[in-house]
Specification:
Number of domains: 2
Low-confidence stretches: 1-30
Cofactor: Fe cation
Strand content: 15-25%
Mean pLDDT: 90
Catalytic activity: a phosphate monoester + H2O = an alcohol + phosphate
Radius of gyration: 26 Å
Protein name: acid phosphatase
Helix content: 10-25%
InterPro entries: Acid_PPase, Calcineurin-like_PHP, Metallo-depent_PP-like, Metallophosphoesterase_PAP
Number of strands: 30
Structural class: alpha/beta
Number of helices: 17
Pfam family, one: Metallophos
Shape: elongated
Amino acid sequence: MTGLIDSKYMALCLGLMIFSFGLCLVSTHAELQRFEHPAKTDGTLSFLVLGDWGRKGAFNQSEVALQMGRIGEELDIDFVVSTGDNFYDDGLTGKHDKAFEESFTRIYTANSLQKQWYSVLGNHDYRGNAEAQLSHQLRKIDSRWLCLRSFIVNAELAEIFFVDTTPFVQSYFTDAGGHTYDWRGIGSPRAYVANLIKELKLALRESRAKWKIVVGHHAIRSIGHHGDTEELVSKLLPILKVNNVDFYMNGHDHCLEHISDTESPVQFLTSGAGSKAWRGDIKEKNRDGLKFFYDGQAELQRFEQPIKEDGSISFLVVGDWGRKGNYNQSNVAFQMGRIGEELNIDFVVSTGDNFYEDGLRSVNDPEFEKSFSKIYTAKSLQKQWYSVLGNHDYRGNVKAQLSPMLRNIDSRWICLRSFILNTEIVELFFIDTTPFVDKYFLRPKHHHYDWRGVMPRQHYLSNLLKDLESALQDSTANWKIVVGHHTIRSVGRHGKTKELEELLLPLLEANNVDMYINGHDHCLEHIASRTSQIHFLTSGGGSKAWGGDVDQLNRDGVKFYYDGQGFTSLELRQTDAKVVFYDVFGKVLHNLKLFKQLNPVL
């Protein structure tokens, strides 16, 4: 048996050696309904555990779902366990509530996640129509959904006991805090809990499974926001100890956590980071047995890109492009295809402002194909595109651009707020720079910005800088490149971005970043820092350019500037790098060659 908690992928994965079994509902001596699930032919079972998620894709729910799909495919999972708080903020309003599809069906779209989901209710689910979530009619909408108050999934060697923990908590009955809870089917909470405990005791005592796992929404042990649940410590924990339960899995606290019980073999595993997280909200008391705690959904998500057999990597950079082929976008795309073939590129980087003027309206917006799929058609460009958001993208439906559903339309597309691409030779750190800029919040003019997932802003920026600093410090790559939409240094129309100079640049200098690549200014540009090794590279000439719009006064360190359309290529090996700027006709405008010693860590 192996257990894995991985903060980078925001899911709890558990692998168990078991015998083969089939999915059906069978009778049992206890009242708890029992399901049996078929194992793989090699006798193993693997599944993901997720909690506190249903926010229509917001608060990184879509990003978590994307990574779940990837890990689910790698592990060939058999099913998914949900630890409750499935639909925020107040559950479902009824069996036909659109939130069911908006927060579940349309979010967890990866092929690997089209398996059975076994779910319990959380306290937020009880604030809505609890009977609706429990209704078998939801299975007619999405057959994956199975949610009961309490039940058992049997796998002979492993039995998973799902327990309805919300009625245990007295405060929901005595001090509801202005909320209305749907207690239909509960009756007297005291009698309900007593009967449930009786049934669980019997089921655990009769179990012959080698591994016993109990799943509930509320934590028994946690150092997170909610902390220990006193009622579960006094009423449920003794039963787990007496019956040699191996794991208790829960959500409720929006974190990932592992605590070992100091008096028994029970391992307490929290997986409640399916969407909104509470960074820094930690209880310092009672840290006995704490093995792991992560107060977020994930660190910066990481993608791996293999290098070529000759030990090199090459890619193109383009920014500020999405105009349905207009303003020479199609011509730039044609030349990108030609250069991409010559260099045998591995991927493409987009520096943002991907869709003009105001981003995408939805995941079904035809602009996605008109400005991307139908423009970059060259064979050499059918590689992965790694993209960040620009300020124009934030004027539309940001969640649409970030949605994994776009990959169903064009599999090349990966767009996240911030993430890391590791290529062995170089690590690229993609950073969401738009929320740094004060004027978009203070003086938005007539524009509307989609700040879902960003607010509260200072909290968002603080966490992003913290994650970036940690990732840069941990990096052993010989080359470090940071990619963002906005400039740090530029002599173009927008010029320097003072917020990035103050908050981001010191991190880059302190961590020996080699290049900062951006768009935003519609030009091609190379500026060398006078105070560090950083080279500032602007590649924002993907379509409309601003000819003649140049700051003639502040040209310190400027090595090259071109106020027209074009793109950039990079070729890297362990000890040398080459950057080339091209115009709309594919003509080479400027070369940059860099050399460095091999990192002794490598």
